[in-house]
Request: fold
Amino acid sequence: MNNVLIVYYSLFKNTENLALEIAIQTDGTIRELIPESDYSFDYNTAVKEVRNQISRGFCPKLISGNESIDDYQTIFIGTPNWFKTLAPPVMSFLRLHDFSDKTIIPFCTHGGGGFGKIENDIAKECSNARILPGYDVNGIAASAEVKNWLERIGYEFKQK
Ligand SMILES: Cc1cc2nc3c(=O)[nH]c(=O)nc-3n(C[C@H](O)[C@H](O)[C@H](O)COP(=O)(O)O)c2cc1C
Reply:
């Protein structure tokens, strides 16, 4: 096991797909965040649920994914772009851990809005971490592009 962790939340699996690609290319450990009560797979219902949670700053309890991060130095953090910000389960994860002296690398999938405020929001929550430039994709990521990004940010490919 190396010291790379890939943490993500994904409702419709685009972000999961990107997380899996990053895990393959880095040999990191993958960890899915699962909230106590997941969102509807009906898009319009999910929009209402998510809008309500984000407007209240609600951070759901995680039933999986919230184990210790002590063994990891580099943590990729992935989320869908939901109203320009992080999915609430990802905010739950950020609020529950101390990222001092860790390296955080954000990634997101979206429907055209890019990162929105996501990178800023992560930086605000994890002010003690070193944050590297993230990767965003509309829909499904191509593995060659993921590889280029990892190389561009100086991340050692297939780190052991
Ligand atoms: C509740 C909700 C809000 C969304 N808000 C945005 C947005 O503000 N900007 C954007 O580009 N895409 C938005 N999207 C589209 C998702 O970011 C996009 O479909 C993403 O790839 C979904 O990731 P997932 O498959 O991992 O759940 C939204 C989707 C949902 C369900």
Summary: The chain has five helices and eight strands. The beta strands are 4-8, 29-32, 34-35, 62-64, 74-80, 103-110, 130-131, 135-138. The chain has one domain: 4-152. Residues 21 and 129 are 24 Å apart (CA to CA).
